Amino acid sequence: MPETRSAPVPVGRRERKKAATRQAIADAALRLFLERGYDDVGIREIAETADVSTTTLFKHFPVKEALVFDEEADQETRLLDAVRERPDGQSIPAALREHALRHRRAAAGGDPRFTAFFDLINNTPALRDYAQAMWLRHSAALARVIAEDSGLPSDDPACAALAHFALEAPRAARGHGDPEEAITRAFDLLENGWRAVASGR
């Protein structure tokens, strides 16, 4: 994915080399995908372009779709931090709404690299499905953080529901003329429901 910030520098030569190899593979894959389309590029070609073996490629990326989502772990960290590090007085739904608008909505009028990146995902069924599954994989972790922050049991169904629907909101907004408004309205609904949960504790 196009970079939005500098990644932390790994400690140690081996870790730096491993991170550099992973980045080179991801960059080669994305470049080829954007040039020719996801379905028309094979794993062997990506490996050759990145100057690694296919075995090395699969050590870093177990499936082809993962090559496009090389920042998945960082994305989960940012998602959880949106709750943990939100300003005093800001509700959890409001923090998650800001996260969705900042990180999950294609930047309208923004960097053309992001437009191309999101177009690649939206126009490729395999990548759309993987992206959705990726975000839903974060649902359990998000639910635990919401519960912890709210003083509720880790398996509280309201926390699980908020996490699930917060991650679903950007998908629900796809295809609307004004995605930002659609996302905001979805989170208004979550805000009202969560307020009832929070006030009932």
What report would you give on this structure?
68% of the residues lie in helices and 0% in strands. It has 201 residues and is mainly α. Helix 1 crosses helix 2, helix 5 packs antiparallel against helix 10 and helix 9 packs antiparallel against helix 10.
Write the layout of secondary structure elements.
Elements lengths: L12 H24 L6 H8 L3 H7 L11 H13 L7 H12 L8 H11 L2 H13 L1 H12 L6 H16 L6 H21 L2
Helix pairs in contact: 1-2, 4-5, 4-8, 5-9, 5-10, 8-9, 9-10
Short description:
By secondary structure, this protein is mainly alpha-helical.
Biggest β-sheet strands, sense, barrel:
none
- SSE sequence, one letter per element: HHHHHHHHHH
**Low-pLDDT runs:** none
* Overall geometric form: globular
Structural class: mainly alpha
Mean residue pLDDT: 87
Measured distance between first and last alpha carbons: 40 Å
Rounded radius of gyration (Å)? 19 Å
Number of strands: 0
Structure annotation, total helices: 10
What fraction of residues sit in β-strands? under 5%
Percent in helix: 55-70%
